[in-house]
């Protein structure tokens, strides 16, 4: 990728997995009872990259897909959505990951994964596009890529390279317990890289899991705070989000919409936030501006829950402004 200063200035690189979710055609039934499934491209890292691009930001995805029809379909979807694809590798020996998703009647999800091993797990450090990673202003990642080698080493190397190049590190653990050997291992590996980040977003469920507390309050959240953090966020679904910085903390209310499928809402939220801070990180120290950005991010998350699947539901700026104006 040619680097010509101005053009690279606000690149957000999202590192991790892209897969195909098979979503039942009927909500509120078990996998066994589902009459059929629709293929929905997804994977948190890819969702975040597309969320950024759809909002007019500059995004790249770094990860590995199977050298199969699904893998090339997913790479095509990234390109169609204006995501830079020069960080994608293809694995000839492994398949693109699949997940079968059950949509419960309340719009929440359960997962059954097909990855033994899938291509995303086989990304090696030497396959990383270091030039792309070094040109990131923000480097975003999750924890699924920490579960097994060689992907874990690739993840740690990419983080190190991005940090050394001066990127803001953004971490959304995106806990998927069924993928981990045990809950203890998940907690340990997720927290092992905790202190490296600048911005961290956890859901209320992840907060409970990581702290072992059943309280979603400031005291519990602040046990996850580290002195080098710029921002810690706890998303609360229909109750909005809590934010914590060195100087202030508070809550921003959610938007009330008709929720059909919560897939991708958290990715849409973090993508929107990163898009708004990539060019001016000083907003993280300005509470009124930060609250405005989080209101925008909450709107993006809310809109994403009103349609099935993640990527088709990620909003455009027009949709977001429509919801923001309607709620005034």
Question: How is this structure best summarized?
Answer:
The chain is α/β, with parallel strands linked by helices and 328 residues long. The chain is built from ten helices and 13 strands. Helix 1 packs across helix 8 and helix 9 crosses helix 10.
Average pLDDT over all residues = 94
User: Which series of helices and strands comes N to C?
Assistant: EEEHEHEEEHEHEHEHHEEEHHH
Strand order of the largest sheet: 5-4-1-8-9-10-11-12-13
How large is the radius of gyration? 18 Å
What is the beta-strand fraction?
A: 15-25%
Number of helical segments with 4 or more residues:
10
Keywords: ATP-binding, Carbohydrate metabolism, Kinase, Nucleotide-binding, Transferase
Function: May play an important role in maintaining the flux of carbon towards starch formation.
Protein name: fructokinase
Pfam family, one: PfkB
Give a description of the structure:
This protein has 328 residues and is α/β, with parallel strands linked by helices. Helices cover 32% and strands 22% of the residues. It contains ten helices and 13 strands. Strands 5-4-1-8-9-10-11-12-13 form a nine-stranded mixed beta sheet, with helices on both faces. It has a four-stranded mixed beta sheet with strand order 3-2-6-7. Helix 8 runs antiparallel to helix 9 (287-304) and helix 9 packs across helix 10 (317-326). The longest helix is centred in the last third of the chain and has 18 residues, at 287-304. The chain is globular and about 50 Å long. The model is unreliable at 1-6 (pLDDT under 50). May play an important role in maintaining the flux of carbon towards starch formation.
């Amino acid at each position: 990728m040619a680097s010509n200063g101005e053009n690279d200035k606000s690149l957000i690189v999202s590192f991790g997995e892209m897969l195909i979710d098979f979503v039942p055609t009927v909500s509120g039934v078990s996998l066994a009872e589902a009459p059929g499934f629709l293929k929905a491209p997804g994977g948190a890292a890819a969702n975040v990259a597309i969320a950024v691009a759809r909002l007019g930001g500059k995004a790249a995805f770094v990860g590995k897909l199977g050298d199969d029809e699904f893998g090339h379909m997913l790479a095509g979807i990234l390109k169609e959505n204006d995501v830079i694809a020069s960080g994608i590798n293809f694995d000839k020996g492994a398949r693109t990951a699949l997940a079968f998703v059950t949509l419960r009647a309340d719009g929440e999800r359960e997962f059954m994964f097909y990855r033994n091993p899938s291509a995303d797990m086989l990304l090696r450090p030497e396959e990383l596009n270091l030039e792309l990673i070094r040109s990131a202003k923000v480097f975003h990642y999750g924890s699924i890529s920490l579960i097994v080698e060689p992907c874990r080493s690739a993840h740690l190397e990419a983080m190190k390279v991005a940090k050394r190049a001066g990127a803001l590190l953004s971490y959304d653990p995106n806990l998927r317990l069924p993928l981990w050997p045990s809950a203890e291992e998940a907690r340990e590996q997720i927290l092992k890289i905790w202190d490296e980040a600048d911005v961290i977003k956890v859901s209320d469920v992840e907060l409970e899991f990581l702290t072992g507390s059943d309280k979603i309050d400031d005291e519990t959240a602040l046990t996850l705070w580290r002195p080098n953090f710029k921002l810690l966020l706890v998303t609360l679904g229909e109750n909005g989000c809590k934010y914590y910085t060195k100087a202030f903390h508070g809550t921003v209310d959610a938007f009330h919409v008709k929720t059909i499928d919560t897939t991708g809402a958290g990715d849409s939220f973090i993508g929107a936030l990163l898009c708004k801070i990539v060019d001016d990180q000083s907003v993280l120290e300005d509470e009124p501006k930060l609250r405005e950005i989080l209101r925008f991010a909450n709107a993006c998350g809310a809109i994403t829950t009103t349609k099935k699947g993640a990527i088709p539901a990620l909003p455009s700026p027009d949709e977001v402004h429509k919801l923001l104006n309607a709620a005034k």
